[in-house]
C-alpha cells in the first residue's frame, strides 16, 4: 500500500453526482430501446430530485433526443450535464471509475481493465471511457491511475472503512491463474483496503457477470448487510442463496461482531423468450438523502423497498421500474456509478 490516506468510500457517503450512459440503437438495447429508455428517464428524474446527474451520450443527436425525453418527464435539467463520448454499452458500474478518496479533496480515479465480463462482449470503447471522461475535464485535478488487472465496479462492495466484499465465482473466472491470496493482495493494494471478505456461494440465473456482489449482498450503514434471499424451496436458487446467507452470518465486522442481516424477498421467476432473467432487489442505488430501489412489477416489490429503506434509515425510498433492464441481465445499480462529493471539476 503506497498511501494509507486513500480509501474506497461507502456508497452512502455524500456524492457529487451519479454517472450514466444513455442507451441508443448502436448498443445491445436496440431491440427494446423504447422500453429501456423509459427506465432511464425514470432513473434520471429520480436522481435529479436529490443531486446532479452526468449523462454520457454518443453524439449531439442523442443528447437532443435524451433532453427531449427528460423535459417531457419534468426531470431537473439544471442538474444534468451531458458528455459526448463513444461507448459499447451502458453498464457504467463496471466500466466507470472506482474513485478512491484521500485527505482533503484528493481523489484517485482507479481505472481497472474492463474486458466485457471476461471477454463475453466487445469492450474496447468502454475500457477507454474513464480516460475519455478525464480528457473531457469531468473530474478536475483528480489523479487517473490505470491498473492492468480485470475488475468491474459491480464486483466489489466497500464499507468505507477498509473492508471490501467480493465473490470467488466472479474473480476466479477473470483470473483463473491466480490464488485467492494473490487476488486479495491485488485488491488490498489497488483499492487501499485493509481486508477482503469473500463469498463462495451465490448466483442468479440470467446473470452474465459471473455473480457480481452487487446483485447478491450490499453493505449498509451501521454494520448491516442487505442480501438477496430465496425462500422458495422449489426454486433452483434456494440452496445456493441459503448457503450464501450462512456465509454472511459467519462474517465479522472489524470489531469482531456479526453483521446485522437484512434478507430481501424473492421475486417470482421472470421468463423472457425461454430464459430466466435475474431480478435482484439487492441491485439498488444510494444517492444523497434517498435510496432508489428496483421494481419489477412483482408482488414482492413493496416489501423489498420497505426492507431496503429500513436498512438505510433517514433516506427517502424511491422505486424505479427496472423490468426492461433485466432483459440484458442487469438492473439499477449496474447502469450507474456514484461519484464522491468534491470530485467534479
TrEMBL record:
Keywords, ordered alphabetically: Hydrolase
Protein name per Swiss-Prot or TrEMBL: Agmatine deiminase
Annotated source species: Dyella nitratireducens
Domain of life of the organism encoding this protein: Bacteria
Hydrolase listed as a keyword: yes
UniProt-listed InterPro entries: Peptidyl-Arg-deiminase_porph
Species lineage: Bacteria, Pseudomonadati, Pseudomonadota, Gammaproteobacteria, Lysobacterales
Amino acid at each position: 500500500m503506497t498511501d494509507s490516506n486513500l480509501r474506497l468510500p461507502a456508497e452512502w457517503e455524500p456524492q457529487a453526482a451519479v454517472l450514466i450512459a444513455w442507451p441508443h440503437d448502436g448498443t445491445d438495447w436496440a431491440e427494446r430501446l423504447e422500453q429501456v429508455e423509459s427506465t432511464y428517464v425514470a432513473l434520471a428524474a429520480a436522481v435529479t430530485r436529490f443531486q446532479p446527474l452526468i449523462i454520457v451520450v454518443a453524439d449531439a443527436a442523442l443528447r437532443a433526443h435524451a433532453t427531449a425525453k427528460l423535459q417531457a418527464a419534468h426531470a431537473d435539467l439544471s442538474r444534468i450535464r451531458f458528455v459526448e463520448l463513444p461507448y459499447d454499452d451502458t453498464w457504467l458500474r463496471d466500466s466507470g471509475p472506482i474513485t478512491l478518496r484521500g485527505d482533503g479533496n484528493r481523489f484517485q480515479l482507479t481505472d481497472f481493465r474492463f474486458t466485457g465480463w471476461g471477454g463475453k462482449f466487445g469492450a474496447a470503447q468502454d475500457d477507454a471511457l474513464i480516460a475519455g471522461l478525464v480528457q473531457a475535464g469531468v473530474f478536475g485535478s483528480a489523479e487517473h491511475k490505470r491498473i492492468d488487472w480485470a475488475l468491474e465496479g459491480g464486483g466489489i462492495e466497500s464499507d468505507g472503512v477498509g473492508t471490501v466484499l467480493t465473490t470467488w465465482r466472479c474473480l476466479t473466472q477473470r483470473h483463473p491463474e491466480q490464488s485467492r491470496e494473490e487476488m486479495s493482495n491485488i485488491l488490498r493494494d489497488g483499492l487501499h483496503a485493509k481486508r477482503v471478505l469473500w463469498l463462495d456461494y451465490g448466483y442468479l440465473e440470467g446473470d452474465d457477470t459471473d455473480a457480481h456482489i452487487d446483485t447478491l449482498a450490499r453493505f449498509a450503514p451501521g454494520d448491516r448487510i442487505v442480501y438477496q434471499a430465496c425462500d422458495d424451496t422449489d426454486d433452483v436458487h434456494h440452496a445456493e442463496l441459503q448457503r450464501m446467507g450462512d456465509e454472511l452470518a459467519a462474517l465479522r465486522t472489524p470489531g469482531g461482531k456479526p453483521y446485522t442481516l437484512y434478507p430481501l424477498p424473492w421475486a417470482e421467476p421472470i421468463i423472457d423468450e425461454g430464459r430466466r432473467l435475474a431480478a435482484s432487489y439487492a441491485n439498488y442505488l444510494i444517492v444523497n438523502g434517498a435510496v432508489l430501489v428496483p421494481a419489477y412489477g412483482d408482488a414482492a416489490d413493496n416489501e423489498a423497498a420497505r426492507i431496503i429503506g429500513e436498512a438505510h434509515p433517514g433516506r427517502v425510498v424511491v422505486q424505479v421500474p427496472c423490468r426492461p433492464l433485466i432483459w440484458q441481465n442487469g438492473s439499477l445499480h449496474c447502469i450507474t456509478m456514484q461519484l464522491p462529493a468534491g470530485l467534479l471539476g
